[in-house]
Amino acid sequence: MSGASLLQRASAAVLAVLARAVTGVRPIWAGTLPNGPLRIYFANHASHGDFILVSTCLHPAERGRTAAVAGADYWSAGRVRRFIAGRLLRTVLVERNWVERRADPLAVMLAALDAGESLIFFPEGTRNMTEEPLLRFRSGLYNLAAARPQVELVPCWIENMSRVLPKGAFLPVPLLCRVVFGAPLKLEDGEDRKVFLDRARAALLALAPRKDGTPQ
């Protein structure tokens, strides 16, 4: 194992302990088992801490092979962010600016899957800073599902993380969080892109708590 891998495993373990201490995060495996084949965990996105919370909920072996997909424009800006993304965290950086990018984001993600890595993926494409519970899905999840149909697509609803680490905050606010893992999806033969994305979005929304705070 390389020095970078050892550092990433150690960092992931430390972050998992800290995340549990701050959020008391509780995984709810409502539609699937914790261990399984290669997966794409697709989740709602409202905080930079979202992928840490999903990763924390995974078993150590699964956590060790799971990388978060993140925007290169943010995580490559500045020496500190580059060090965090490249050395401390398991990240697959994709360039979101189609005019300036030098590598195809889909090719980068497929290369990670082909190397045996599961992915944590945010199909909204950016953090949701609106009052809407979930933004419209971009086409990335469909493209991944079409290119690698054998990979499980597991919806994950992250609850409360936007209040623990809101935009602009450096220190987290202690609040209880949950991550609800739903039943895996797959792209049906001949399924239209929009139909699939709407179905995947509905499956994720179905995991969100009701307005009274109780689970669905």
From TrEMBL:
Name the pathway: Lipid metabolism
Supply the alphabetized keyword list: Acyltransferase, Plasmid, Transferase
Q: Return the Pfam families for the record.
A: Acyltransferase (PF01553)
Which SMART domains does the record match to this protein? PlsC (SM00563)
The superkingdom of the source organism is Bacteria
- InterPro entries given for it? Plipid/glycerol_acylTrfase (IPR002123)
Gene Ontology MF: a single term: acyltransferase activity
Where would I find the Phospholipid/glycerol acyltransferase domain in this sequence? Answer: 39-161
Coiled-coil region(s): none
* Stored PANTHER family: 1-ACYL-SN-GLYCEROL-3-PHOSPHATE ACYLTRANSFERASE
Its name, as the record gives it, is Lysophospholipid acyltransferase family protein
Which organism does this record belong to?
Shinella oryzae
